[in-house]
Design brief:
By secondary structure, this protein is mainly alpha-helical. Helix content is about 40%, strand content about 5%. The longest helix is centred in the middle third of the chain and has 16 residues.
Length: about 140
């Protein structure tokens, strides 16, 4: 019969999986949330656990300040587990990635440069100097 007074070994806490590459600002963002709301004081372990979610936001081009504002907005009055609230918000409020930028429309070819007509000095557009359309018509009729 086991001794009831013998202490059971305390299970070791799992280390957060940070195998996924993290955005450099993710850890700073999460650690800095306590400056915006003191209730969001997170342990180092919680920060490491939440960092992949914050990295996803940052990789989608969202500024750290915008993420912080979104995470601390409208928090409940009493927070027992700030890391759980933030974990939920990081996944539930994740905006979609931006759509691919549409291809740029083809540019119209540049117009020919302005030339002065060799006969009448009128300006016209042409790839090379010469005569304007009126002077060419007059010359070909003559």
């Amino acid at each position: 019969m086991p001794d009831p007074e013998a202490e059971e070994p305390v299970p070791e806490a799992e280390e957060p999986d940070i195998a996924a590459p993290l955005h450099p600002a993710a850890l700073d963002l999460l650690a800095g949330l306590r400056a915006l709301d003191p209730r969001l004081l997170l342990s180092e372990r919680d920060i490491l656990r939440l960092a992949p979610g914050a990295s996803t936001w940052l990789e989608r081009g969202i500024a750290p300040a915008a993420i912080a504002r979104k995470l601390v907005a409208d928090l409940p009055e009493h927070i027992r587990h700030p890391a759980s609230v933030l974990a939920y918000r990081l996944t539930a409020m994740l905006p979609p990635p931006l759509p691919a930028a549409p291809p740029e429309p083809e540019k119209a070819p540049a117009p020919h440069p302005l030339q002065n007509c060799d006969s009448c000095e009128r300006a016209f557009r042409a790839p090379e100097p010469g005569r304007c359309g009126d002077c060419r018509v007059v010359r070909s009729a003559a």
